[in-house]
Amino acid sequence: MEVFSQAGGEMLSRWGHYMAGVTWVGLLYYFNFVQAPSFAEFEAAARTEALSKLVPRALWWFKFAAMLTLATGIMILGFQENLSGGEYFKTAPGISISTGILLALVMFGNVFSVILPNQKVVIASAGSVAAGGAPDPAAPAASRKVLLASRANALFSIPMLWFMGVTSHLAPAYAIHPKGGNRGIYWLITLAMVIVLELNGTGRLGGTAPGGTRAYLDDHKKSIIAGFVLWGIFVAMWELLF
Ligand code: HEM
What we know:
0% strand
């Protein structure tokens, strides 16, 4: 086997990619499905201690895993031979990985523009309380933003992981060159869905209050169901358009 070759480079990038991806998304699921519901039942003192000793460690791994996932994902693209000529992105595998990358980039943006900065406010407030000071009045709103963006990311991760895996393992079974017009319709619907879900999940579309248009983010179980519904819409589009 030639590890030190283009194919070897691609394989090593893939290995690093899914190890980093598992770490990122594994922690995302831990935050959503384990930590948030547990914290809601914790005594205030226990929550404060966990926020200053446990959460920063989890966030360190979360942050660097997200960065490494992106870097290794770009490396896979760089090592791939089939990207030359620009035709790749018109094929079924090209459209599949582009959809996965779009979802992953939105998730990445949520980590660095919403989750980490707002968690910093929450952790600093817990630190102040632990030191005998007052909590930051901005902390509850920051915590709510983290919760929503984190649930939106769990939702996006479900179709995202489908497209990451399907690209090499299933998409070649679809027509190789989906018709241009159908590609246009696909991207129009995809972008519209992702933009609306993202604006809604970050509170830019009507605030961060529970219920209403954000009811699917009210708890993690609803977010998981919404993720599978989004996945179903994608699968239906692939069946009907390609
Ligand atoms: C952050 C932006 C990301 C980029 C640019 C990216 C890019 C890629 C690329 C180019 C591939 C190869 C597709 C192919 O088979 O041709 C891939 C596969 C994959 N990605 Fe990502 N990805 C990203 C995020 C993620 C995340 C967050 C995960 C979470 C676990 C992930 C998990 C995977 C997995 C499991 C594969 C399949 C590997 C295989 O079948 O060999 N990716 N990704």
